Amino acid sequence: MGLVTDSFADVLRRSRRASGLSQEALAESAGLSASAISALERGERRKPYPHTVRALAEAMDLSAQDREALRSAAQDRGSQTTSRDAAQSVVPAPLTSFVGREDLVALGTALITRERLITLTGLGGIGKSRLAVELGRRAAGLFAGRRWTVDVESLARDTPVDEAAAAVLGLRDSPGHDHVTSVARAMENSPSMLTLDGCEHRARECAELATSLLSACPGLVVLVTSQRPLRVPGEAVLAVPPLAVPVPGQVEPALTDAVRLFLARAQLAHPALELSETDLVAVAELCRQLDGIPLAIELAAARVRMLLVTEMIARMQDRFELLHAEGDLPARKRAIHTALEWSCDLLSPEERQLFGRLSVFVGGFSLQAVEAGPGRDMSHVLRLMTTLVDASLVAADTSRGTSGRFRLLDTVRAYASQLLSRTPDQDTVRLAHADYYRELAEIWEPELRSPDQAHVLRLLDDEYENMRAALHQCASCPEPEPLLRLVAALGPYWVRRGRFHEGQQWLRRAFEGNPPDAIPLSAYESASDLCWVNGDVATHRQAARRYLDQATAAGDVVHQARATLYVSSTYMVEGDRETWQVLAEKAMELAERGGDAWTVAMVLNDTAAGAVLDDVTAGRDLLIPAALRPLRDAVLLARSTGDLYLVALALDSLALVEARSGHHEAALEHWTECLVDLGDVIDPTTAATCIEGLAQLALLRADPERCLSLLAASAAHRARHDVAPSPIWAEIVATTSASAVTELPAEAIEAAARSGEDLVWADVVDLGLEGVGGVASA
Fold first, then answer.
1. In contact, 434 and 470? CB cutoff 8 Å
2. 658, 666 Cβ separation under 8 angstroms
3. What are the backbone angles phi and psi of residue 236, rounded to the nearest 5°?
4. Which of 213, 330, 543, 677 has its CA 20 to 30 A from that of 157?
5. 220 phi and psi, to 5 degrees?
6. What φ, ψ does residue 335 adopt, rounded to 5°?
7. Mean local confidence (pLDDT), 715-721
8. DSSP assignment of 162-195, as one string?
9. Whole-model pTM?
10. How are strands ordered across the β-sheet holding 192-197?
11. CA-CA distance, 551 to 524, in Å (whole number)?
């Protein structure tokens, strides 16, 4: 037989096209995977097995001459190889650059020097195979070029992994020896590296082969890529996470691995592509929405030939249609949806069911939330969750040392949501999720007025995306009670975290169409509170009067006292001193009758502070000395309630009066406690008034530049949170600014304002306190 010049890849491709078959059609007919056909046609598998050649010839219905040509091409390369003549290196040559992951590469390379079995685990499309190639390249010197790779994923279903390993080493079947023995003899005791790529669907075979070879070959290192560990003794598991994505305002987008990968692959797809700074911002947002998954980023980058990045972002609601490509690639690398299907094929029906149910969570969630929420009718939830984490479909985080948290990447969640949508129990699952978070909010609501409120606020921060999803689910219920209960429970959180507009919108939605007596009084209180701290006087008065009407109708003295206080505050900020004082006295009488220390402290605070503000706006300081005692009493009483938020409000008022009384150190001490010790519990409005008070203190201490910088910083803070000062306070701030301006030249005024606008919040606090204390978080 003459020399065959065409490679097997060339002959196969030519024969397939002559037969009119696609790669997928040929794979189905021959009983192979589409990725195996693709690997053969790309030349990655240069010596297919005889039974594979026969199956291909039969599927294409080749003539006798064409069958012989195909068989000869398969036998041409290495047909006379023996174990002693085995190829020194059979590894895939990368066609694209390796981007980022320097820390992970360093860790992986170090593992190769000291461990003998390393498994790279991670979600499909996360870049395990490409990382394995890079690790092999970096460690090549350790093995004198003796490296081999078995593409396990592309093997035909009936091809044993040990047979594939023998073929990769160029070994012929040896009578009396099995494939494992032949491979072990070929490797001898020399330093060698074998990569088993894509083992998740053949995990048991790969585990057995790795264990046998490692026992027989002391110089061998086995590198495995799989979506889950092999779970054999001595296995070092290295999880491959998504690429780092840009954090808005913290890191230049072009410096993050996800953006660098997008730009590198976009340049391949469109070499003439030029991106502006605005485009880079869009790329950063796209990479965030793609969760830093390399396959998703590469598929999106290929779209730059026909779509702007902003257009891709607009199409992310149908991300699986966007993240799809044609070409000579394995099927699971042509679409992110197919990669996820490949992952889910590993799951049992029960695991698949729970995976779909997890899509109702938004952001992070706890194991308890799964067990008491969407998984409450399932058994063995912990075991099922362990499997999903091992399969890299669910990310686990135990780094905070309190309780474990779980999360689905948004792309994975979108796929899981598709699974859930095909089940008859999806509505029940969503209701279970909403019920759990409503009950959790109701448990935590009283704690938001306790000494432990900073901790509870952080817990709510972690769960807020799920709380928001629960709000939407409750809003879709035919009965109003679930939504009313949830908005009432979240009211104090909305106040303390400055989510004023969102809270008001949800409260309005909950109130619509419901009889007034069906609405909890605490919901009316939250509506009034949100208007008060947001400085919305007209809406505040309307909400406070509605609250007072319902509290009076219910005969609830405590709520009557608080509602009366809220009504009185609207007259205070408008300067109607007579009406304000009458209502404040009424609120005090009701609060004392109801034994409500919280409202008594607030009345003391508002009465004294309001009188001082009224005095200051009139250009006199006559009432300031008399205000010190009731404000100090308000602070003591606030401390007795355990509500740290109330303590901060009272301290802020006291600090301003202390400053205007000449007690500058006392004022600094109070504002330090507000901004540093209580920085986690104060709302954005209170944080702003503290800084504006410190600006007035700076002016009193003959430091007009610091004063203007602090006022500029506070104005920027208010703009970020969309919170306006009350009219009376705005007038005082304007007067302070005008006084500082008169003491400075124009260039100093501009410089002070610019420096304040550019400060991060921690530096604003430090500037205001002159380095006292530390950093607050508001």
1. yes
2. yes
3. -100, 120
4. 213
5. -90, 140
6. -155, 135
7. 92
8. HHHHHHHTTPPP-TT--HHHHHHHHHTTS-EEEE
9. 0.78
10. 89-90, 147-151, 192-197, 220-226, 117-121, 235-239
11. 9
| Residue 267, Cβ density class (10 Å: 0-12 exposed, 13-18 middle, ≥19 buried) | middle
Contacts of 102 (CB under 8 A, 6+ apart): none
User: How wide is the angle at C-alpha 255 spanned by C-alphas 253 and 261, nearest 5°?
Assistant: 85
Q: How confident is the model at residue 2 (pLDDT cuts 50, 70, 90)?
A: very low
Q: What percent of the chain has pLDDT over 90?
A: 43
Query: Distance (Å, rounded) from C-alpha 293 to C-alpha 126?
Result: 5
Locate 453 and state its tokens: 């409120």
Q: Which residues contact residue 101 at a Cβ distance below 8 angstroms, ignoring those fewer than 6 apart? A: 127, 131, 134, 243, 257
Of 171, 176, 164, the residue nearest 186 (C-alpha): 171
Contact yes or no for 277/270 (Cβ under 8 A) = no
Contact, 424 vs 409, CB < 8 A?
Answer: no
Residue with token string 């409000």:
649
**Structure token digits, residue 328:** 């000579």
For residue 492, give the H/E element and its range: helix 481-496
Least trusted range by pLDDT, from 19-23, 358-362, 563-567: 19-23
Compute CA distances 199 → 94, 210, 470, whole Å: 20, 11, 39
For the chain, the straight-line distance linking the first and the last C-alpha, in angstroms and rounded, comes to 82
Q: Which two tokens stand for residue 643?
A: 């509500």
The three-point CA angle 106-111-115 to 5° equals 170
- Could you read off the pLDDT of 90-112 as tens digits, one per residue? 666 666 778 888 889 999 999 99
- Are 251 and 284 in contact by the 8 Å Cβ rule? The answer is no
Q: What are phi and psi of 391, to 5 degrees?
A: -80, 5
CB of 585 within 8 A of CB of 601? no
CB 535 within 8 A of CB 726: yes
